[in-house]
Design goal:
Mean pLDDT: 82
Structural class: alpha/beta
CATH class of the largest domain: Alpha Beta
Radius of gyration: 37 Å
Number of domains: 2
Low-confidence stretches: 139-147
Number of strands: 12
Number of helices: 8
Shape: elongated
């Protein structure tokens, strides 16, 4: 007997498999899986937010301070005003940094870092004075309230950042002795202070230890007054490294000299004994 034809076999398979499934029924398992994933993500996010912002586990309990020298840890903590007890995640580190810079001008830079799970660490870098000037006694209103024996520290950027009752050891006193008003119009006092700072940074270390006063007469007339009544005519702040090298060699060649001139480093001079 002949078997079923190809057409008959096709009809039989269609009958056994039943009618085709609607497209919506085929999508339901995928849609259900997607919904489960979304709900899972939302639950995980909610749990994480609760742990970070509402739980009692991740709250500020400690404010460690490092890097202080002149300032005290207590001064830094009080100026920072870190909200102890608040969620660590909600602490505004930028606001803390701004408060520290505003309240403590001695601070050059500060890193405010969340120290999980319970701390906000403050790593301070203080400004270092390279010169001091006598306090002119002028407050922000322009009124004079000068107090004798007060000095203002100046850092290597020319920033006047702190008033101290006595001269710091090893820091030269800056004196501006510009004789003509025209000179100040051409080179304002702030510009002359920056030049003085520039010179202070170029002075050889051995000479810097003996420098008592850095006197600025004009932009290109800066004189160092050393211990023992010795002087160094430095000139302007230009070619500072060459002048430093020349001064070191000149002092070795003329150890008993009292006056040194390196304003032109290629033609130095010394005199006195």
């Amino acid at each position: 007997m002949a078997g079923p034809t190809t057409a008959e076999r096709g009809e039989r398979r269609k009958a056994e498999s039943g009618p085709p499934r609607p497209p919506l029924l085929r999508r339901l398992p995928r849609l259900r899986t997607l919904i489960i994933l979304i709900v899972g993500v939302m639950l995980a996010g909610g749990a994480a937010a609760w742990v970070l912002y509402l739980s009692p586990w991740l709250r500020v309990e400690e404010v460690p301070v490092s890097g202080v020298d002149v300032l005290t840890e207590r001064e830094v903590r009080e100026a920072a005003d870190v909200p102890v007890g608040s969620p660590l995640m909600s602490v505004d580190t930028a606001a803390i940094e701004a408060r520290l810079r505003q309240k403590l001008p001695r601070i050059d830079s500060v890193d405010v870092v969340r120290s999980w799970p319970h701390g906000v660490a403050l790593d301070v870098t203080e400004r270092t004075p390279v010169l001091i000037v006598e306090d002119d006694g002028n407050d922000e209103s322009g009124e004079n309230d000068k107090q004798d024996g007060k000095f203002v520290e100046v850092d290597d950027d020319g920033v006047r950042f702190a008033t101290v009752p006595k001269r710091p050891e090893g820091v030269p006193l800056l004196e501006l002795t510009v004789s003509h008003e025209a000179g100040l119009r051409r080179f304002p006092a702030d510009r002359l202070v920056r030049e003085a700072v520039r010179v202070a940074g170029d002075i050889p270390a051995a000479v810097a230890r003996d420098t008592r006063t850095l006197r600025v007469r004009s932009y290109d007339s800066i004189v160092l007054e050393l211990s023992g009544g010795r002087t160094v005519t430095w000139g302007s702040g230009e070619k500072g490294r060459a002048k430093a090298t020349t001064l070191t060699a000149l002092m070795k060649a003329s150890p008993k000299a009292r006056d040194f001139d390196v304003s032109v480093p290629t033609a130095p001079a010394s005199s006195g004994s």
